[in-house]
């Protein structure tokens, strides 16, 4: 049995007949209609707006709080030649927001300077020291983009010394807002803006629209990138902005963007939200995660092709460094996990502070548990990020432990915190206690919403092309997830530089569907010989001009008992011990073939009473069989007694019974003749020489001598073999050892050579 990583939730909402008639009138298929219905678009007007986003549907920027006040102040600054500072943020949203505001002000002829804080030097949001320096250098108006509502101290300082601050932001509003000249925010309680979920760049675009008296189409490329990167809701006005922005990118004359696409191996004409989300946004985010983000604004705003190319290459190198750092920290953190903890809390002084949120997310996805990753700094503080599953509101839990932190903020699924390193152990203890006392079930993992059940037969290139009608995808408009039930996998093979992914073919009757499972490379055996339920996203794989449907696997489930083929020698090195696995050997000598594991962890079979006692006193889920029993019935009985989900078959054979056999009549005759030509043979020292002389494998030779000893053809004392004169004649089958050998050969032949399906059938029926 293989359980799902996620908590699957299948949509059961069915569209009404009236709605299906509307769908038909719109020339849409019932399939797309059902997906739209499930996403809440259930009226004709809603459908039309969703499917055909238009610039005319953008909201009036003056509905936003303080917009008129902000515009009047900016116009005054432009007319009077005041030096304006645009103070941004270090992520992709902040970078694009800054560029939009900078270029808007430049179009008006303003004297403008931009500044993006370095997260390691200045931290997030308004920094009083920077404000002070910039004001002393001549800044007369400060406009924040994608930050500001949490900058009370810095804003208060600026206003006190006579420099107005206009905040444009979209982040959660604190109880106490800064006393800025103006606060432009879509969620401001005193505003009337109809769409609350704009990204920072969306708010900047609204200011630009008001200043320029129309939506500036030339900035829609940046708006799309920042909105996609910030993972805000891909509905309503954001959907319109992104859809229009993606079209703008296809014809963009922005030199920096062209250079970044070229450096990313992408073409502007083929752009979609996935390319932005997986290639462009990470490069923009990486520069702020790793250091100074200001070159990114220079790249996006420059008219110098050489500079643009240079900056684009720099961003790519930094992103590669970021990926390497993330992978290194992730692997280190995984080795530190204590499974007895309800929540992973992992800290290290060598970890890079800028990527800890990514690492926390990766570990949470791999383990299914909420995760907090901290970097311990030289001053004794620990700073980091946390990510959580649906079942645990991370912010709510940590809010009860604020006494441990010097800084804390976030929401249900993600938090940031700073604390003295001395408090780390106390935090772990209190989190474990919280989960226990609140009876929070963390076993289900994050929710995965499934749109529809399909079969391989139903999946066509045309169907996948039709799904593009729902794009652009993002938060609140996710790429559709489909469930395929009880399929078999064929041609399963590892791919990727580190063999961390799988490529396979899913089969149902005579219908096939290619699939790729990213990050599942270590679960190759899970797919074999068992029907699986799979969930994933559909895509088109194009090769040499030929298009084929392909499933990108998100998760899968295997019901029932599984047997894993570990008969390859590469499985004989074990570095970790699973306390819920019974490691069982039938011959103690076989254990020597395994490296990396203490022999004490492996049980040597004595009798069924011993096994029954072990199973009754341990919560075993898995059974690892080191070698072969003398009789297959023993293994069948063990499987009946235990409630194992899976069995791993190593297939070690110390005696190599099947390989060497039980000895032929000719071999026994040769050995008998040799023994009777000597009075005594010291087999402690002569065994290898006899083996070579008779051309009989040494392990088989030992067995044959044991048979002769049992049949009283020889005596053995202190390692010295002596013939018995005129022994009584016996057929070999009179030897119990010989009979056991014949039986063992058959067992080994079956367990070592049969396919897993045959082994499973024989052992479970």
Sum up the structure in keywords:
765 residues; alpha/beta; inorganic pyrophosphatase (n-terminal core); Diaminopimelate Epimerase, Chain A, domain 1; 4 domains; 26 strands; 40% helix
What CATH architecture of the largest domain would you give? Alpha-Beta Complex
CATH class of the largest domain: Alpha Beta
CA-to-CA gap between the ends?
A: 17 Å
The amount of helix comes to 25-40%
Across the major sheet, the strand order is: 3-2-4-5-6
CATH topology term of the largest domain? inorganic pyrophosphatase (n-terminal core)
* Quantity of strands, as a count: 26
Compute the number of structural domains: 4
Query: C-alpha Rg, in Å?
Result: 35 Å
Describe the global form. elongated
Largest sheet: 5 strands, parallel
Strand content: 15-25%
Q: List segments where confidence is low: pLDDT < 50 over at least 5 consecutive residues.
A: none
| Helix count, DSSP H or I runs of 4 or more residues | 26
By helix and strand content, what is the structural category?
alpha/beta
**Average residue-wise pLDDT:** 93
